[in-house]
């Protein structure tokens, strides 16, 4: 079967929008947000109590700046392309706030609707990350961390992603306890744990599917600026 061309620049745009939409859908479902965004969501919930303008999107690129510094410390190297990941994080933050606003119009009183929203968010997140792994444009800092660590230490990227997700989940649980008390779970719920366990697998599944169906090619001659 002849593969269709999927331009990497389009993969970047679609992946970024899907990630933002997925985070908004899972937040609306209220079964627990993705473990990757859970720490940022908790930071948003806490800080917005004192600074109402501090949105979920703002919390995202604030926390991703911290993760970027951690990545540089772990690898003991710095690339100019890393700064593009922060630009992506800021762009993602704006898109996320827009999606949060739009998704708020979806009625979510019925349990089955919340389940559908959660499943769509779970699948959308995996598809979005998979697409970002197939583009040369700097992904979010979260995905950059996984990509760079797996590449530097010659590790399976899907396994590194699973470990990263589980670590984010643990960090989010600790933050929830510290911010809101020992028995009050905010943002981190059963859906967060399910997502942490399945995300690495589903990303790998969609990656294999995309590679079987599409040939990822650059539409623009910009790759050298991100290397």
Give a structural overview.
- The structure is a single chain.
- The chain is mostly helical and 227 residues long.
- The chain has one domain.
- The chain is 69% helix and 4% strand.
- Helix 2 packs across helix 3 and helix 6 packs across helix 7.
- The longest helix is centred in the last third of the chain and has 24 residues, at 157-180.
- It is globular, with a radius of gyration of 17 Å.
- The mean pLDDT is 88.
Search tags:
227 residues; mainly alpha; 8 helices; 2 strands; globular
Number of domain modules: 1
Into which percentage range does the β-strand content fall? under 5%
The neighbouring-strand order within the major sheet is 1-2
Head-to-tail CA distance between termini: 32 Å
Percent helix range = 55-70%
Helix tally equals 8
Mean pLDDT: 88
Shape: globular
- Total E-strand runs: 2
User: Measured on Cα atoms, how large is the radius of gyration?
Assistant: 17 Å
Sequence of secondary-structure elements: EHHHHHHHHE
Question: Main beta sheet: strand number and arrangement?
Answer: 2 strands, parallel
Derived structural class: mainly alpha
- Unreliable residue stretches: none
